[in-house]
Amino acid sequence: MNQAKHPSQLYAEFIKGIWKENPVFVAVLGMCPMLAVTNSAINGLAMGAATTFVLVCSSLLVSSLRKFIPKQVRITTYIIIIASFVTIVDYVLKAAFPGTHKDLGAFIQLIVVNCLILGRQEAFASRNTPIKALMDALGMSIGFTFALFCLGATREILGNGSIFDISLFGDNFEPWVIMILPPGGFLMLGMILLFFNWLQQRKQHKLQARAREVMS
């Protein structure tokens, strides 16, 4: 019976971060990189990939060492582990993708203090097995990357008339320059959060309506 439930439990840990507990649209975490680097789709994906590597690797290591890390120094230990993987990402991007590294700038190093990553170590990885920590980290990472891509792609389309530097509307398109500026990030994020909350409320109303039908 436990073996039958095991795959479904792992799937639940994975899928929750993508939609139900999305770190940006629901928990509203990681707002600094969310607003700072998402003026294009490629920057959003690059930051999402970097965050995914750090979150997955640190969650696996913290979960594997959870019984050996003293409670008194657990936060310090988590930060050291996270910082180690951030350093790896920083050097790899600088060597292999210097243009992207320059675009992301200091926000690569700031992954160390991303509340999403540190929060998952304290709330989940340090209390669960490595396989569960892996599923949780993958789901949260995909959800975070999805949010970054949505904001970056929307801002690039409206602000430049392009996606991945490919022109979509031709020379006659008048771009909304504000969308690739900091105010555009706040405006578009607010609109996306509003749309996401509307979807959540709509789903909740449908569930409540079905419950009333069943009771009646």
**Average pLDDT rating:** 90
Count of the domains: 1
Question: Which overall shape is indicated by the principal axes computed on the Cα atoms?
Answer: flat
Major β-sheet annotation: 2 strands, antiparallel
Strand arrangement, major sheet:
1-2
List the helices and strands and how they pair.
Blueprint: H1 2-16, H2 31-36, H3 41-64, H4 74-96, H5 98-104, H6 115-123, H7 130-160, E1 162-163, E2 166-167, H8 182-215
Antiparallel strand pairs: 1-2
Helix pairs in contact: 1-7, 3-4, 3-7, 4-5, 4-6
Describe this structure as you would to a colleague.
By secondary structure, the protein is mainly alpha-helical. It has one domain (2-215). It contains 8 helices and 2 strands. It has helices at 2-16, 31-36, 41-64, 74-96, 98-104, 115-123, 130-160, 182-215; strands spanning 162-163, 166-167. Strand 1 and strand 2 (166-167) form a beta hairpin. Helix 1 packs parallel to helix 7 (130-160), helix 3 (41-64) packs across helix 4 (74-96) and helix 3 (41-64) packs antiparallel against helix 7 (130-160).
